[in-house]
Write a structure and sequence with these properties.
Blueprint (H helix, E strand, L loop, with lengths): L2 E4 L5 H10 L16 H6 L1 H6 L4 E5 L5 E8 L2 H11 L1 H7 L13 H10 L6 H4 L4 E7 L8 H15 L4 E7 L3 H10 L2 E6 L2 E7 L1
Parallel strand pairs: 4-5
Antiparallel strand pairs: 1-2, 2-3, 3-4, 5-7, 6-7
């Protein structure tokens, strides 16, 4: 009874909720953040806004969204667009926490630091894997091959856009997700700051 469909602007609240409920290495991070929208502002909202053609949701039998996969074909161009059109408004809402030592920042302050100083993809990775993606499923949407079907839906869209490869980031603690990606054919490209970058040729 699960279906995959293109996301619409009406799905924004669902994407933000799922993003938060999977933000702790796949587990619910609701209790970690005072501002429940911060995670979604970074990892969900900009994709629905600027790359809806690469944003898909999973609906359960009751029509409720319980997962998403989203990405972009050209990561470098996407990062430049966010710098012009997405981050400035958010920077006005939350002050930069750069004045605090990294180890003293709260979870919210770590995210606001990312808003003021967003990570940029490694050009060496982009040379072969210019696209990137995020996928998150709530527990009821996991299993049954839904994750694989969602990824294949996005892979098809990226191939049709002319992309030769896609990369993603996964936490070193999220062993389950790493296994899933490897099963799809992703291979490890680099490790930095508690995360692993993996890539797949399309």
């Amino acid at each position: 009874m699960f279906t995959i469909r293109p996301a619409t602007p009406d799905d924004r609240a669902a994407l933000y909720r799922i993003c938060l409920e999977t933000a702790d290495s796949g587990a619910d991070a609701t209790n970690l953040y005072r501002d429940p929208l911060l995670v979604g502002h970074i990892y969900a909202g900009p994709y629905l806004t600027f790359a809806p053609e690469f944003t898909f949701v999973l609906e359960d039998g009751g029509g409720e969204v319980c997962g998403y996969v989203l990405g972009v074909a050209d990561t470098a161009a996407f990062e430049e667009r966010l710098e012009r059109e997405w981050w400035p408004r958010l920077r006005e809402q939350d002050r930069d926490s750069a004045h605090l030592p990294a180890q003293e920042r709260t979870p919210d302050e770590r995210l606001t630091h990312l808003i003021h100083h967003p990570r940029r993809a490694d050009p060496a990775v982009l040379a072969a894997f210019p696209s990137h993606l995020h996928i998150d499923l709530l527990p009821r949407g996991q299993g049954g091959g839904h994750g694989r079907r969602m990824m294949n839906r996005l892979f098809t869209a990226l191939r049709e856009a002319g992309s030769p490869g896609v990369h993603l980031g996964v936490g070193t603690r999220n062993v389950r997700a790493q296994g899933f990606y490897r099963h799809l054919g992703f291979r490890e490209l680099a490790q930095t700051n508690g995360g692993i970058t993996m890539g797949l040729r399309l």
